[in-house]
Amino acid sequence: MSDEQPDAFQPDNLSEQERVRREKLERLRAEGVDPYPVGFPRTTTLGELRAKHPDLPPDAHTGERVGVAGRVIFFRNTGKLCFATLRDGTDDLQVMLSLDSVGPERLEAWKSDVDLGDHIGVEGEVITSRRGELSVLADSWAMTAKALRPLPDKHKGLTDPEARVRQRYVDLIVNPDARRMLRVRSDAVRSLRETLTKTGFTEVETPMLQVVHGGANARPFVTHINAYDLDLFLRIAPELYLKRLVVGGVEKVFEINRNFRNEGADSTHNPEFTMLEAYEAYGDYDTMLRLTRELVVNAARDALGGTVVTHTAPDGTVSEHDIGGEWRVTTVNEAISAALGEEVTNDTTQEQLRALADKAGVPHAPEWGRGQVVLELYERLVEEHTVLPTFYKDFPTDVSPLTRAHREDPRVAERWDLVAFGAELGTAYSELVDPVEQRRRLTAQSLLAAGGDAEAMALDEDFLRALEYGMPPSGGMGMGVDRLLMMLTGKGIRETVLFPLVRPE
Questions:
Q1: What whole-number distance in Å separates Cα of residue 248 and Cα of residue 246?
Q2: Annotated binding-site members
Q3: Residue closest to 184 by CA, chosen among 297, 305, 304, 273
Q4: Using CB atoms within 10 A of its CB, is residue 486 exposed (0-12), middle (13-18) or buried (19+)?
Q5: At what angle do helices 461-468 and 435-450 cross, to 10 degrees?
Q6: 3-state secondary structure of 235
Q7: How far is C-alpha 437 from the geometric centre of its chain's CA atoms?
Q8: pLDDT for the residue 452
């Protein structure tokens, strides 16, 4: 190799297995074999083949000739007969290569050329072994992609959590749970779309690059467009664009979208995440409550085959919970009261709330208003300790800047949060559609932003102009898709997201 190549590609920096594999690669090329051909005449997947022949007796010959391909995840070479297990995207299947079927030259090439992890194509007859294992008896085979790195130990697998995240491709190769998570996520997202489409919602796409960030209290990522010499923000929420569509007459609208928030990363937060947001004209937060429960239960049935979910507590205790029944609905005040053992109402003063917080050991800052103290009590004493899915409703208005005031008591907002297993899954509002009141609230938010609050919303004049054309009474909801998967599978966000953001190695 050239002296100009990086050290990482020098032979001295390779493991023994990697050196052997590269030597095989060069030998194959020298022999005129393309180790990375353009394709292979595959006639069926391994899963289709298994489904077609579920009950063949031992030592059966079907006479059916197929072409199959997959990654070698196991092999055993024993003289005149070699066995291998191939894995494709659908299943695993055994292939057999005998001296009689492929000839001495190709059998010897198999033994000398093939390593665990290589992609192989096999053509031959569908049979069963003497033990009844469905197999393909090869009469020809070909290398379809030579693996230059060895797979993890077959018994230990890829056990390092950091390596599983950084090398998700290896995790998917060797870890059945990783492949299952991918399928569960796909089935759950498809279920969300199908439920909303069947109930008359229209799916749309809204901008990820925005001139004004809004729709949530969050610190945005900032970027720059050279063509316009303009700073832009990566979307923190699609809310204000979806509401523009409701103004435009799209009365039931949703988006499954990627959002970006420049905040902390932990077991429940990733800077880039997937959200579902939906809005319905002439709905309210109760309408959204019923819709959200239907979405979650349908996703569980479609992704898991039922409504029982399994969770592991921090102490290692494993428990099962059926989320298919009715879900608890209670107010924030009622939940805080139950946690404190003392009644909290909308008449409880800020000074009384601070005293209750001190007594319960809940921290609070001097500059906080009454609503922020209530919110901190709720998050510390209620949200973290909630197990089964629960709707907590009627939050203080001053911590709900985009939400309509409650129709009976304007001190609280028509908003709920859905919480399960200690984490918030989603939130919903009876939307604030009064353009004058919305301007007042966004102006207050912009003043907070000017004062240094990095999470406060900016004043979006185009959104306010849209509201001035008239937005009908509406309900809106947002639910974290990653959080939904966490609830369904009992896993952390780094497992439910295929490629979570991690620090460079």
A1: 5
A2: 417, 424
A3: 304
A4: buried
A5: 170
A6: coil
A7: 36
A8: 77
* Closest-CA residue to 256 (of 211, 305, 299): 299
Compute and round to an integer the Cα radius of gyration of the chain. 29
Q: How many CA atoms lie within 13 A of 30 on its CB side?
A: 6
DSSP string over 205-249: ---SEESS--SSS-PPPEEEETTTTEEEEE-S-SHHHHHHHHHTT
Sequence-distant (6+) residues with CB within 8 A of 32 are none
Assess contact for 247 and 466: CB atoms under 8 A: yes
What Cα–Cα distance (Å) separates residue 354 from each residue in 201, 349, 374, 413, 423?
A: 44, 9, 9, 21, 24
Handedness of CA 55, 89, 309, 187 (dihedral sign): negative
Regions in the chain scoring below 70 on pLDDT: 1-12, 154-157
Give me the pLDDT at residue 2, please. 44
Quote the CA–CA distance of 150 and 116 in Å, as a whole number. Answer: 7
By CB atoms closer than 10 A (0-12, 13-18, 19+), residue 314 is: exposed
Element (H, E) at 239: helix 239-247
d(CA 433, CA 416): 18
What is the per-residue pLDDT across 319-356, written as a single tens digit (0 to 9) for each? 999 999 999 999 999 999 999 999 999 999 999 999 99
Instruction: Say which amino acid occupies 64.
Output: E
Annotated binding residues for Mg(2+): 417, 424
One-letter amino acid of 178: A
**Both structure tokens of 163:** 């390596």
Q: What is the pLDDT of residues 213-254, one digit of tens each?
A: 888 888 999 999 999 999 999 999 999 999 999 999 999 999
Q: In what order do the strands lie in the sheet with 390-396?
A: 202-203, 252-260, 272-281, 474-480, 423-430, 412-420, 390-396, 328-331
Nearest alpha carbon to residue 399 among 379, 435, 373 = 373
* pLDDT value, residue 154: 66
